[in-house]
Structure formats: C-alpha cells, structure tokens
Design brief:
Elements: E1 2-4, H1 8-19, E2 24-26, E3 33-37, H2 41-51, E4 60-62, H3 69-72, H4 78-87, E5 92-97, E6 112-116, H5 121-132, E7 138-139, H6 154-161, E8 166-169, E9 180-183, E10 190-193, H7 199-206, E11 211-212, E12 239-242, H8 244-260, E13 268-271, E14 285-288, H9 293-309, E15 315-318, H10 327-337
Parallel strand pairs: 1-8, 2-8, 4-6, 5-9, 10-11, 12-15, 13-14, 13-15
Antiparallel strand pairs: 2-3, 3-7, 4-7, 5-6, 9-10
The structure holds threonylcarbamoyladenylate (TXA) and magnesium ion (MG).
Length: 338
C-alpha cells in the first residue's frame, strides 16, 4: 500500500504503525528503508525476516537530530562530533560505541551502533511523529531483500517486499546510493562504505584523514557490514564492467555472432561512451550513462532494475573513472559485478 508523503494522515499512520511494532517503507534521500522501532526486538525481528537478512548483520538507527545521539551512543569521539556537525542531516552514517542497554537486536548484538539522521523532509516528518508516539530511534536497512539492489522509489519497495507493506512515497531518492558509513569505534575514522560525500570534505570535517577499511595500519578487524560483502547490490542478470574500448570490442564481436546466429539473447549496455547499435541487433538496449558521478548515483539502482527486468543476457557497464568523486558508484558497480 503506497501512500503519499505529502499527506499528513499518511505520516501519522506511519508513525502509529512504527509505535505498534509494525514495519513501514521509509523514504530517505539515499534509498528507501524498511523501518521498525529500534527499541522493539520483535519489530526488529520482522525486518530481518522480511529481508531474509542474517540476524547478525546490524541495522542503522535513524534519529531526528544530533541531540538524540547520546541516547544510543556511549561515547562520541571529537572527530565523530565534527562529522555530525558538518553532514547531518544528510547521507552519513556513523558507527559509534553502543550504550549496552539500547537497541541490542537492531545492532545485531554488536557493541556498536550505526546512527544516521536523514535529510529527506518526509523521513524527518515520520521520525518526528514517531518520536511523539514514543519511538526514539527507527531501525531501517535498505528495503530490499538481502543481497539485492536497494530501492530508490516507493514502487521498487512494493516490488521487493509486497503490496501489503505500508510504503510512504517520498518520490525518487535524490542521492540514489546508500549513505557513506564511517566507523568511529576505533579511535580514528575508518571509511566502511563510500557514498556520495566527497572524501576530501569528510577528511576536512573530521580534522584527520579517514582510513580505508583494509588499511594494514588498522590492527582490529573491521566490523561486519553486509554492505561491504564482495557480492552485494546484485541484479539477477550478470553484470560485467568494461572500459570504453573493451566495450566497443565486445560489441563488435557480438555483431559478428549475431550474423552467424540471429535471434540469440542480447545483453543491455550502460555506458558514457557513445556506442552504436550494430546491424542485426535491433533489440539491443543501449542506455546512456550521464557524465557526472552524482547523476549516475541518482539513477543507478533504477537503471539496474529496469535493465534486469528486460531479461537480458547480461548487463555490460562502462567502468567509471578512477577519481574519488566516483568512489560510491564504483563500489556499488564492483559489488554488482562480483
Ligand atoms: O542510506 C542508507 O544507509 C540506507 C537508508 C535506508 O538509511 N540504509 C542502509 O542500510 O543502507 P543497510 O542495512 O542496507 O546497510 C547498512 C550497513 C550494513 O552493511 C550494516 O552491516 C552496516 O551498515 N552497519 C550497521 N550498523 C553497524 C554496526 N554497528 N557496525 C558495523 N556495521 C554496521
Ligand atoms: Mg542494504
């Protein structure tokens, strides 16, 4: 059941559902979340069941504002506070030491907690209304089944999880890929998952350069994060990343094969480079990738879903440029192709 986020009745309904231990589809500026009262173990268990997600993969808890952080976090290092000051509300999640008495199920039993304050006005309205109904934190992983592409529209959520779930429609997500995650439990900031936030801006705000999760200087192993599994965000069609010249070569040999074997299944292409549909490949789908990383992030998951729904023989995607602005998109594409 999709209800418009512009309708105050829908916001009130969503808040009441959360307070009653039910799940809702929550729009945020990154992707849609599958939301539950973070303090209710039973509600959180429904999230894991709906997603078919292993119970030891922790969920992000969403809060109305930075003032809520001490309710969940035992300690906030200075660099973490500076990141909060710079980027909240927004597409940034911080992993902080968890107060032992709160949100244990949502945290997947870890002694840390992921906290995020989303900027989307509909998310803000739902969080505020839920807070008035007694729900102080809303656990919400992306509203997809485990291992699948995150939803960026209300319809995607319904497609993933069924029409009985109440989904509040906040439009297509602006950002389009999941939040940047910074682990703040190890005395220095560690980037667990890149998003759209600029790496240099994160370093500047933290006052210290972020470490990479596989930095050999880090002695303690990285905490478990399903968004950091090698294969994740995967459509059913096989995704292959290629440089522009490889893509042109693959297209040329496809054209030769089609001459020999007309009617064979064709892949779909998503590339910045201008590519021409070879003769005899009338059904070949070529989707033009925008030039900027932000524009690609915005449409990426919707495009993967669209191309996947065509039941193509595979999805060939032009490898994104190497510079830092593309870190988030490159990360999602590499996982989709793994
Ligand atoms: O943009 C987002 O972050 C979206 C929206 C809905 O807010 N949420 C999202 O949640 O992407 P999810 O569960 O799909 O991805 C969150 C990632 C997971 O990989 C999870 O394992 C990790 O964050 N995570 C959450 N809490 C953690 C913790 N305490 N320690 C380590 N990793 C944690
Ligand atoms: Mg996810």
């Amino acid at each position: 059941m999709i209800r418009p986020g512009s309708d105050p009745e829908a916001i009130a309904l969503a808040a009441r559902a959360l307070a009653a231990g039910e799940l809702i589809g929550l729009p945020t500026e990154t992707v849609y979340g599958l939301a539950a009262d973070a303090s209710s173990d039973a509600a959180v268990a429904k999230v894991y069941a709906a997603k078919k997600r292993p119970a030891d993969h922790p969920l992000i808890v969403h809060v109305t504002d930075a003032a809520r952080v001490p309710e969940f976090a035992r300690e906030v290092p200075d660099f973490a506070q500076r990141l909060i000051d710079a980027f909240w509300p927004g597409p940034l999640t911080l992993i902080l030491p968890r107060r032992p008495d709160v949100a244990a199920a949502a945290a997947g039993g870890q002694d840390s907690i992921g906290l995020r304050c989303p900027a989307h006005p509909v998310a803000q309205a739902i969080l505020a209304a839920a807070w008035r109904d007694g729900v102080h934190g809303v656990a919400a992983p992306s509203a997809n089944r485990f291992g699948r592409v995150s939803p960026t529209t209300a319809q995607h959520v319904t497609d993933e999880l069924g029409a009985r779930l109440l989904v509040i429609d906040g439009g297509a997500c602006d950002v389009g890929i999941e939040s940047t995650i910074v682990d703040c439990t190890r005395g220095l900031p560690v980037l667990l998952r890149p998003g759209v936030l600029d790496r240099a801006a994160l370093d500047a705000a933290a006052g210290v350069a972020l470490h990479d999760r596989d930095d050999p200087q880090l002695k303690q192993a990285a905490p478990r994060a399903s968004g950091t599994l090698a294969s994740h965000y995967a459509p059913s069609a096989r995704v292959t990343l290629m440089d522009a010249d490889e893509l042109a070569g693959a297209l040329a040999s496809l054209a030769e094969q089609v001459v020999r074997m007309p009617g064979q299944p064709l892949p779909a292409l998503y590339a910045r480079a201008p590519l021409h549909r070879p003769e005899g490949c009338a059904g070949l789908v070529i989707r033009r990738m925008p030039d900027g990383a932000e524009a690609v992030a915005h449409e990426l998951f919707a495009v993967l879903r669209e191309l996947d729904a065509l039941n193509v023989a595979g999805i060939w995607i032009e490898r994104p440029p190497a510079d830092a602005a593309w870190d988030g998109v490159r990360d999602r594409l590499q996982r989709a192709a793994a």
